[in-house]
Amino acid sequence: MTRQNRVTPFGDIVAYPERGTFIGNRGILHDQHGQLTARCWTTHAWITCRLEFKERHREIMSPGTWTELFFLDEATALAAGHRPCGECRREDYKRFKACWLAGNGGSAISIREIDRQIHAERVTRQRTKVTYQAAIESLPDGTFISLDAESYLLWQDDLWRWTPGGYTDRLPKMRSADVTVLTPESIVNALKAGYKPLGYL
């Protein structure tokens, strides 16, 4: 059975058969039957984890435990508003936090405060995706943008269309154009400060 546990760059949780290369969570979002409830999150700490860690094994969507969500790659997870886990991805977490702080003013704040700021940048009070406009030439590699209701990854002067199974339709990046950005702004700033997401490209 294909479960509804795959996350798109828009942050939507959808049903696709492909598993993805990262797992993560936003808290408990499913009921005792393994079906998603109306909740989109139960915590501000949206994290991205390794698929395997210390030989731990989980039964997908077990009652009373966090809901396993899957991502094509880390750039997809970042666009949806997830950050690296501080346990199973400790080195990536430290790298992300250092780049996030460097890109967003350099003040030493806690990860809880970072999570709160990212949360305000990813969803509105009506639970819709937060986007913003920016000049495409100002955006770093690893940023997702929206074009004609599709999501595209900026990578090495090209645009790659996201699909559940990978990237297709490689397009040259436009010049001097304002675009709709999907990746939360403070995470874009972390990318500008040197954070490199893991993934296919």
Number of helices in the DSSP assignment: 4
Q: How many angstroms does the end-to-end distance come to?
A: 29 Å
> What's the number of structural domains?
2
Report the radius of gyration as a whole number of Å. Answer: 16 Å
Describe this protein's structure.
The protein starts with a strand and ends in a 9-residue tail after the last helix. The strands form 3 sheets. A 6-stranded antiparallel sheet has the order 7-12-8-9-10-11. The chain folds into 2 domains: 4-122, no CATH class; 132-185, SH3 type barrels (Roll). It has 4 helices and 12 strands; from the N terminus they run βββββαβααββββββα. The model has no long low-confidence stretch (mean pLDDT 92). The chain has helices spanning 74-80, 90-103, 111-122, 185-192; strands at 4-7, 13-15, 22-25, 47-49, 69-71, 83-84, 132-135, 144-147, 150-155, 158-163, 166-172, 178-181. The longest helix is centred in the middle third of the chain and has 14 residues, at 90-103. The chain has 201 residues and is α+β, with helices and mostly antiparallel strands.
Name a few traits of the molecule.
201 residues; alpha+beta; SH3 type barrels; six-stranded antiparallel beta sheet
Describe the structure in brief.
The chain has 4 helices and 12 strands, in the order E-E-E-E-E-H-E-H-H-E-E-E-E-E-E-H. The protein is of the alpha+beta class and about 200 residues long.
Question: Any chance you could write out the topology, listing elements then pairs?
Answer:
Layout: E1 4-7, E2 13-15, E3 22-25, E4 47-49, E5 69-71, H1 74-80, E6 83-84, H2 90-103, H3 111-122, E7 132-135, E8 144-147, E9 150-155, E10 158-163, E11 166-172, E12 178-181, H4 185-192
Parallel strand pairs: 4-6
Antiparallel strand pairs: 1-2, 3-4, 3-5, 7-12, 8-9, 8-12, 9-10, 10-11
Helix pairs in contact: 2-4
